[in-house]
Here is the input.
Amino acid sequence: MVAAVTPGQMGFPHATTVVAVKSTVTDKKTGLTTGETRLFVSSAPRATFTPRQWLARCRGHWSVESGNHYRRDVTWQEDRELGRNPRRACNLALLRSALLGAILRDGSVNLSALTQRLASQPGAALKFLRARHPQS
Here is the structure.
């Protein structure tokens, strides 16, 4: 479902469209079927895209989530960061971004194993980050 909305209705300053995506998943082992509806809010006018294009955009959002944020949260538990200093949080996020970029350029597939190895060898971690073509 795609509907036109006003910013006041959604509580977002530039909201003009809300997209509801319903999905159903059946667990192959248990046979249990569950469903959920996810809402996406956009500043793009409703008529900008067809329903199929809106769905593709919503799915595209999750490819970013899976490719970047999921890795960061699962490997480094970034969402559990309890630091109250905004500069500290920003600096840690920048360091994690640099490390993730270096790891992805390196082609390492086991992010967790490489992170653990580099965590136990700070000198190797700094060398890894400085290298033009890092080697795992």
Observations:
- The chain has two domains: 1-64, 81-136.
- The beta strands are 2-4, 17-26, 33-42.
- Residues 1-64 form one domain.
- Helices lie at 7-10, 51-76, 86-106, 111-119, 122-130.
